[in-house]
């Protein structure tokens, strides 16, 4: 499938940013994130009118109130240069052909070219790398297909969005576009850029961010970076399969595990089997989950709050230390024990003067647990790792620009560098096309992925890259 770029430009907002909003400061939690991009691709059915409102509205919505250019690792300039916008077309395929047999290797063609982004490899190997001046905060590519269907591919800087926030941005942008077509019939909530006020950054005497690199997601991931490129695969769990996993995961002490917990623990169990088959022995493994603080705060924080409102938690399974073969209920219990530590009290501590000390302790406790699990007498034991993120129930399937809701939303992985990779799982709900099931986008080393996708236990519950059209 050939994608032809027709135009590239910066779409400027129709009115200037008010002076008091010219600088957007990063919050304490924004600084935990690697300076990379969060990608999202939305596939829309054929529409009987020409799509002409999109470029104007991405400037007025995205970003009448959203920052434009990263100045340093402390803030973003809202300089009204606008959003980077690409218009493209496909002439050789109809959208239905792609959705019938989705080829994941083609997805990078539907987002802005990666050579304009930061090199992810440098983020893993160089602990001091920060986003350079002038880096775009938002980049958009709209690709039209001959049938009238179209695809919107978006990159938003991780320094300003987590999974919930990028969904908020897409819904607000879509609602603004729909409103410009439907008049006052469409009501929506604009993104709120209040992260630095809710979680103030801690600066040193020189005015620089005082956060140690070891207490960041980048510092943690660098520990588990591996040589070679990960293979990305998409596994789909029907709603009935998720319900069955919940039943299998339940115990007398944990009677109602969540859908995310059940699916996450099941993938962890299958990955552990792949690692054991590869090495011929059991090894400790760590999974991390980014927990949404908006729902953990008491009272809840606004869902339209932009920025990174997440706290990382870690759960370790370690048969080397005398634990028996861990089945699904045990793995779910370990995850629940870890995530339960993220509560209203923790949120209050993160918002106070001791916020930096609090988040540093979260990472230090994780580092101590890793050290304990990888020590066996005088020997050091290798630990396996998967980093989970979930945008399930975020509402991204409600992004209706006035042309109907998306047929499919793909949280495509960034094309990591060939030299290094980190195991990852991205979870999201399937929307109506998948009967409200779950998609799991899994990245593993090639040999591990071969073992995983041949696991009949996994395939009993999940389909490998099925058609979007049912």
Present the secondary structure layout.
Layout: E1 3-11, E2 23-25, E3 37-44, H1 54-65, E4 69-70, E5 75-77, E6 83-90, H2 95-100, H3 120-125, E7 135-136, E8 138-144, E9 150-157, H4 163-182, H5 195-198, H6 217-223, E10 226-227, E11 230-237, H7 239-249, H8 259-279, E12 285-292, H9 293-296, E13 310-317, H10 328-339, H11 344-351, H12 355-373, E14 375-376, E15 379-380, E16 384-390, E17 408-410, E18 420-421, E19 424-429, E20 438-445, H13 446-453, H14 456-459, E21 462-464
Helix pairs in contact: 1-4, 7-8, 8-10, 8-13, 11-12
Shape field: globular
Estimate the strand proportion. Answer: 15-25%
- Strand segment tally: 21
Computed structural class: alpha+beta
Uncertain segments: 62-67, 115-124
pLDDT average, as an integer?
A: 83
Count of helical segments?
14
What does the model show?
The protein has 470 residues and is an alpha+beta fold. It is built from 14 helices and 21 strands. The chain has a seven-stranded mixed β-sheet. It has a six-stranded mixed β-sheet with strand order 1-6-8-9-3-17. The chain has a four-stranded antiparallel β-sheet with strand order 2-5-4-7, with no helix packed on it. Helix 1 (54-65) packs across helix 4, helix 7 (239-249) packs across helix 8 (259-279) and helix 11 (344-351) crosses helix 12. The longest helix is centred in the middle third of the chain and has 21 residues, at 259-279. The radius of gyration is 22 Å and the shape is globular. 46% of the residues are buried. Mean pLDDT is 83; it is low at 62-67 and 115-124.
């Amino acid at each position: 499938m050939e994608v032809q770029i027709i135009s590239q430009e910066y779409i400027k907002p129709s009115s200037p940013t008010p002076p008091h909003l010219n600088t957007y400061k990063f919050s304490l939690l924004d600084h935990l994130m690697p300076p990379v991009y969060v990608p999202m691709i939305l596939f829309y059915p054929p529409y009987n009118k020409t799509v002409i409102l999109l470029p104007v509205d991405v400037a007025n919505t995205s970003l009448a109130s959203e920052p434009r250019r990263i100045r340093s690792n402390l803030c973003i300039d809202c300089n009204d240069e606008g959003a980077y916008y690409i218009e493209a077309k496909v002439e050789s395929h109809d959208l239905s052909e792609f959705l019938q047999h989705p080829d994941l290797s083609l997805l990078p063609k539907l987002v802005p070219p990666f050579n304009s982004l930061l090199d992810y490899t440098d983020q893993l190997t160089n602990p001091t790398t920060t986003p350079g001046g002038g880096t775009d905060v938002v980049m958009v590519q709209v690709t039209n297909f001959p049938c009238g269907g179209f695809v919107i591919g978006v990159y938003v800087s991780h320094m300003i969005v987590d999974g919930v926030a990028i969904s908020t941005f897409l819904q607000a942008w879509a609602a603004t576009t729909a409103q410009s077509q439907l008049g006052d019939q469409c009501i929506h909530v604009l993104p709120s850029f209040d992260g630095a006020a809710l979680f103030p950054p801690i600066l040193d005497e020189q005015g620089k961010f005082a956060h140690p690199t070891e207490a960041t997601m980048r510092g943690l991931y660098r520990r588990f970076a591996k040589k070679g490129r990960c293979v990305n695969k998409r596994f789909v769990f029907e709603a009935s399969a998720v319900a069955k996993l919940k039943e299998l995961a339940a115990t007398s002490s944990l009677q109602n595990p969540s859908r995310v917990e059940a699916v996450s623990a099941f993938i962890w169990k299958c990955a552990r089997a792949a690692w054991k088959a590869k090495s011929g022995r059991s090894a400790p493994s760590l999974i991390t989950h980014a927990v949404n603080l908006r729902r953990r705060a008491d009272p809840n924080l606004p869902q339209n709050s932009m920025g990174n409102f997440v706290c990382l938690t870690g759960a370790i399974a370690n048969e080397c230390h005398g634990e028996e073969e861990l089945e699904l209920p045990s793995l779910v219990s370990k995850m629940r024990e870890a995530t339960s530590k993220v509560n209203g009290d923790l949120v209050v501590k993160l918002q106070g003067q001791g916020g930096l000390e609090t988040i540093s302790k979260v990472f230090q406790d994780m580092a101590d647990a890793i050290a304990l699990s990888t020590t066996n007498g005088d020997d050091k034991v290798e630990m396996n790792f998967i980093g989970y993120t979930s945008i399930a129930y975020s509402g991204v399937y409600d992004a209706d620009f006035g042309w109907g809701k998306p047929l499919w939303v793909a949280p495509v992985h960034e094309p990591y560098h060939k030299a290094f990779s980190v195991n990852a799982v991205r979870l999201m709900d399937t929307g109506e096309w998948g009967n409200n099931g779950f998609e799991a986008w899994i990245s593993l080393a090639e040999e591990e992925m071969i073992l995983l996708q041949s696991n009949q236990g996994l395939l009993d519950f999940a389909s490998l890259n099925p058609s979007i059209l049912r």
